[in-house]
Amino acid sequence: MEKTSNAGQHRHRCSCFLEGRLAVVADDGVTQFVVLGDGNYFGEISILNIKGSKSGNRRTANIRSIGYSDLYCLSKDDLMEALIEYPDAKKMLEEKGRQILVKDGLIDEEAANVEEPRDTTEQLDNLESGLEATKTRLASFLAETFAAHAVLKQRITRLEIMMKLVEE
């Protein structure tokens, strides 16, 4: 059996396997918790940034191949890019990862229950309305500045005339 992943490692990829069998094993490398078959995947917990995860971006399991296994690895960037197109798949992966973390006692429930950040569209809408308000305030400020400039220019002109009269 060849070891393919160690718990505690920092990883930035998720592995899917097309065929073969992989065992999730204890740190001793012998005790098997579960055997994964064709089409399963592992490593998603370390790259999905699941809220409340105590493991951060570290692997949570040791994986050993049982005989020959054909693996396909996705980098974090490639997986996240694919999940943009498939938000339901992302939710499913996050929920499965969350269940594993809960089962293993690796989730901070308080941190996990913090309100979700707003979606990108809502954030962009808020930024756009904030930008419009800033533009309006800037236009008002510029109008006030030009008006004050005109008043000051008139005062200076009057003072110059008065100075000429005093000099004569």
From TrEMBL:
Record's keyword terms, sorted:
Ion channel, Ion transport, Ligand-gated ion channel, Membrane, Transmembrane, Transmembrane helix, Transport
Q: Where is the Cyclic nucleotide-binding domain?
A: 19-91
Q: Where does the protein end up?
A: Membrane
Species of provenance = Eptatretus burgeri (Inshore hagfish)
Q: How does it sit in the membrane?
A: Multi-pass membrane protein
Q: What GO CC annotations are associated with the protein?
A: intracellular cyclic nucleotide activated cation channel complex; plasma membrane
Q: Which GO terms describe its molecular function?
A: cGMP binding; intracellularly cAMP-activated cation channel activity; intracellularly cGMP-activated cation channel activity; protein-containing complex binding
| Keyword Transmembrane among record annotations | yes
Q: Which Gene3D superfamilies match?
A: 1.20.5.300, Jelly Rolls (2.60.120.10)
Superkingdom, taxonomy of origin? Eukaryota
Q: Is Membrane included in the keywords of this UniProt record?
A: yes
**Identification of the protein by name:** Cyclic nucleotide-binding domain-containing protein
